[in-house]
Specification:
Length: 403
């Protein structure tokens, strides 16, 4: 039977970054091929497709250098558009990468005045984020890095980054804002090298923050960015963040491996990886927001933009249906049960290292434990059989035989 895929609805909690949908299709080799949409037009376009809401950078709504009055008006019409469409804004961020002043970095620019201006701009964006109801504030340091190593003092730049995060934490606390900061890693583009290139290194940097601020800082892993860093799978990065209690949200899109960023539609490039991501999140009971951070191709017109928007949420629902089919597949369930039993023999229960009490017992048991090293080395894992069953279930193919 063909896979039954439900329509995406707001209840799915999938949000769209307005900037992707606004994108007129410009790239380094040519100008835009379609009109740049306003943030309000994006909200209106995404509402009927099942998006739960939108996120934004300050300059997606108002131009760099706009007056406070222009900024307030733009923010008000964005919030009104969300409200009129039954949508919300769970996250906002700040553009610290487009204006010329940030050409050599923002929080980590060698120039002290640029660093100060960047922090001030982020504070203003935090005010806007809270006004829109956002509870997460993303920081993506697109220009925080270098092209030539001769132009950066790494030891100072890394410290300046931490100082900026601390300052913003102080700002949030001083205002009593209900807002957390999510740091987004990326290895390169637009700089040849960006500081904290992977989610793992970002998590490491959070551990160096003042303990008083650590709880309010997490990460925003992005599918494409992990692939740009040549990770075999993006779910591992998302899982590491979750395991550290730092998965504040994640960015969904597509990317063919370690090259410049492509921001392809979510689920278009890696069906298997997508299914495993959705299955992981189901296993751990993730209920936070899912965020589409992708861009329609330059080949698309205005209509194609909405086709693109639709396929991003549709691919999430398809992956959910594929996961359902995998999890309800009798052959897969049987094999997983058999493997679970084989991997956890009854007399192995003493080797539980998960709590201090259990560890104390396990260590005593280890003193005279004898392991059948040869037998364990020769055991059948049945991973090939299992993966084939997964692939067949994903594709709706009847299994040839129960492996
Ligand atoms: C930019 C980047 C994205 C970030 C955005 C947040 S902007 O498009 O490539 O991955 O999430 O600043
Ligand atoms: Mn992103
Ligand atoms: Mn990106």
């Amino acid at each position: 039977m063909a896979l039954q895929v439900r329509k995406a609805t707001k209840a799915d909690g999938i949000f769209g970054g307005v900037w992707g949908f606004q994108n007129p299709g410009a790239d380094p080799f040519g100008p835009g091929t379609r009109r740049r949409l306003s943030a309000v037009e994006v909200v209106q376009g995404l509402a009927p497709l099942g998006y739960a809401g939108c996120t934004f950078h300050d300059n997606d709504l108002w131009d760099f250098g706009a007056t406070p009055a222009q900024r307030d008006a733009a923010l008000e019409s964005f919030i009104a558009a969300l409200r009129n469409n039954g949508m919300t804004c769970p996250m906002a961020t700040v553009n610290l990468f487009s204006a010329a002043i940030f050409k050599a970095g923002a929080f980590t620019a060698n120039n002290r005045l640029v660093r100060a201006f960047a922090i001030k701009k982020a504070m203003d964006a935090i005010d806007a984020a809270r006004a829109a109801g956002a509870k997460t504030f993303v920081l993506w340091g697109g220009r925080e890095g270098f092209d030539y190593e001769s132009s950066i003092y790494l030891e100072r730049a890394l410290g300046w980054y931490r100082d900026a995060v601390h300052t913003l934490c102080e700002y949030i606390k001083r205002h009593g804002y209900d807002l957390k900061i999510a740091l987004e890693a990326k290895p390169n583009a637009p700089r040849a090298s960006i500081l904290f290139p992977t989610t793992g290194s970002m998590l490491g940097s959070i551990a160096t923050l003042d303990p008083a601020n650590q709880g309010m800082v997490g990460v925003n892993p992005e599918v494409a960015h992990e692939k740009m860093a040549n990770a075999a799978t993006f779910t591992a990065a998302i899982a590491e963040a979750w395991h550290a209690g730092k998965l504040f949200q994640f960015d969904l899109n597509g990317q063919y491996g370690a090259r410049f960023d492509q921001d392809l539609s979510f689920g278009s490039d890696d069906i298997i990886g997508t299914v495993h991501l959705v299955r992981f999140l189901k296993r751990v009971g993730y209920s936070g927001l899912r965020h589409i951070d992708a861009h329609p191709l330059r080949t698309e017109g205005q209509k194609g933009t909405w086709t693109f928007a639709h396929r991003c949420v549709r691919n999430w629902k398809i992956a959910e249906a594929q996961v359902e089919r995998i999890d309800n597949d009798p052959a897969i369930r049987q094999l997983l049960d058999e493997l679970e039993a084989a991997d956890n023999p009854v007399d192995s229960e003493v080797f539980d290292f998960s709590t201090p009490v259990a560890r104390a017992k396990a260590v005593v048991a280890l003193a005279d434990a004898v392991f059948d090293v040869t037998g364990l080395g020769a055991r059948e894992t049945r991973f090939e059989a299992l993966d084939q069953l997964f692939l067949e279930a994903m594709q709706g193919v009847d299994h040839e035989e129960a492996a």
